[in-house]
Specification:
Blueprint: E1 5-8, H1 11-16, E2 19-23, H2 34-49, E3 54-59, H3 64-75, E4 79-85, H4 97-104, E5 107-112, H5 114-117, H6 123-133, E6 136-138, H7 146-152, E7 165-170, H8 174-181, E8 188-193, H9 200-205, E9 213-215, H10 229-242, H11 251-263, E10 272-276, H12 284-293
Parallel strand pairs: 2-10, 3-4, 3-6, 4-5, 7-8, 7-10, 8-9
Antiparallel strand pairs: 1-2
Helix pairs in contact: 2-3, 2-7, 3-4, 7-8
Bound molecules: pyridoxal-5'-phosphate (PLP).
């Protein structure tokens, strides 16, 4: 599947002579955000070929991966189970748009305390899952594995070879790994981590055999799913001037970073940049309900 590249027109880009396009992977599917769709494609095929009837995975309350897994399972006639971080959600998941929609698509939700969730990869917890749900195909939190990376190698297509720099948001690193594998040696890939921490580089290296990439680590805004008024204003301004909606957890931080780097003359005049819009728009409603409680400005839908 091929998604279109949209040219972004902004005064700052024109004055610095930088060309910026956004690959609209957010439009790949009305509910499965771009990269999660790519990451699930070959995993779902494998589950079906192994005659497994259930996809089982893990995630937090607003997880794009949980939403996408529920949807992919339903579309492929599979069951799904979501192991959700936070016991307290057992009583209020109906008010959470991500979880309510996932449940509406048939996902069985199992809420576990954070202390247990942290140990979800222990033999003990695996044994519990086996006894409870027997025949399932396990997807890791965030969905990254070999087949997920393979799916993300299909994000770039032939026409994208003209770009000098490809930019992607980074969570677990699976998406950028697929992108790196699909680049030409003279292209460069910039990753914008949406969370703090230095472990990502090693995670990415496991899946790639090129070194034409680097991480821009100054744009996490305090950590995973952390936002500021500045970031919210940026999302609303960006949508007003380009018609492109951004999600607050991933793609907004990347675009903020790209434009900040343009402003600081980090790119040579004439550079052609392609930024991947990995989706995540389903999470805006949930983020807005958190912002409302804190009396902060909301993201315009
Ligand atoms: C999950 C996600 C990412 C990060 O993908 P990884 O493969 O985990 O690095 C980026 N953008 C969006 C919108 C996502 O949902």
């Amino acid at each position: 599947m091929r998604t279109e590249n949209q040219k972004i027109n902004l005064p700052i880009l024109e004055s610095k002579r930088i060309s910026l396009f956004i690959k609209r992977e957010d439009r790949i599917h009305p509910f499965i955000s771009g990269n999660k769709y790519r990451k699930l494609k070959y995993n779902t095929q494998k589950a079906i070929s192994e005659k497994v009837d259930t996809l089982l995975t893990f995630g937090g309350a607003y997880s794009n991966h949980i939403a996408a897994t529920a949807c992919a399972a339903q579309e492929n006639g599979l069951q799904s189970v979501g192991i959700i971080r936070g016991e307290e959600l057992a009583f209020k998941w109906r008010d959470n748009p991500t979880l309510a929609t996932a449940a509406g698509m048939g996902m069985k939700l199992k809420f576990v305390p954070r202390s247990i969730y942290k140990n979800k990869h222990t033999a003990e917890f695996s044994a519990y899952l086996k006894s409870e749900y027997n025949n399932f195909y396990l997807l890791p939190e965030g969905g990254t594995n070999d087949l997920a990376v393979k799916g993300c190698e299909e994000i770039l297509t032939g026409g994208d070879k003209d770009f000098d720099i490809i930019c992607s948001s980074v969570g677990t690193g699976g998406t950028i790994a697929g992108i790196i594998n699909a680049t030409e040696p003279e292209q460069k890939v910039f990753g914008f981590p949406a969370l703090k921490g230095g472990f990502l580089k090693e995670d990415i290296r496991k899946f790639v055999n090129k070194d034409n990439w680097e991480l821009q680590t100054d744009y996490h805004f305090g950590g995973y799913a952390k936002v500021s008024v500045e970031l919210i204003d940026f999302i609303n301004d960006f949508k007003r001037s380009t018609q492109v909606p951004l999600d607050p957890v991933y793609t907004a931080k990347m675009l903020f970073g790209i434009l900040d780097m343009v402003n600081k003359d980090s790119f040579e005049p004439g550079t052609k940049i392609l930024a991947i819009h990995t989706g995540g728009l389903q999470g805006i409603t949930g983020m807005n309900s958190k912002l409302k409680k804190k009396n902060l400005p909301l993201i315009n839908l």
